[in-house]
Amino acid sequence: MQKTTRRPKQSEVKEIWHLIDAKGLVLGRLATKIAGILMGKSVPSFDPAITPKTKVVVINANDIVVTGRKLEQKEYIRHTGYPGGLRSKPLARVMAEKSPDALIHAVYGMLPKNRLRKGRMDNLKIYAGENHPHQAQNPIKLEL
To answer: What CATH class has 15-67+98-142?
Structure first.
């Protein structure tokens, strides 16, 4: 007889809040840690088929650092769908206009490309400054 692994039910998964202060942290390294937390890899009952109730709150997203010459060289490229509709925006402009978008884009690209990705991204809250409305949940402060 073959033994099967017990999978946790959605009702058995506990809600955990993580608070990350992004001041001085590198964009890519921070995004990999956040993606791992959103997938639930830090929880002992990890199941790739279940979206955990783990929430991540990132503060001070304006103070994220990038290494090397990425500010000048890295570009975010999209296409409108029309002929000649290729649009690109350098990372320096993205960080100047709305710096949380760079972190959102990085985390989104690091999550698995499946049906659970949108639900996992809904558990990510990013704020440019210190203030955020999630004080009541008693978040766990992460040191990265």
So the answer is: alpha beta
- Written as six digits, the tokens of 117 are 């990705």
Q: Mind listing the pLDDT tens digit for each residue in 53-66?
A: 889 999 999 999 99
Q: CA Rg, the chain, in Å?
A: 17
In tens, the pLDDT along 83-134 reads 999 999 999 999 999 989 999 999 999 999 999 999 999 999 999 999 988 8
* Sequence ranges of the domains in the chain: 15-67+98-142
With beta carbons less than 8 A apart as the criterion, state whether 54 and 44 touch: no
* HEC per residue, 60-94: CHHHCECCCCHHHHCEEEEECCCCCCEEEEEHHHH
Output the pTM of the full model.
Answer: 0.87
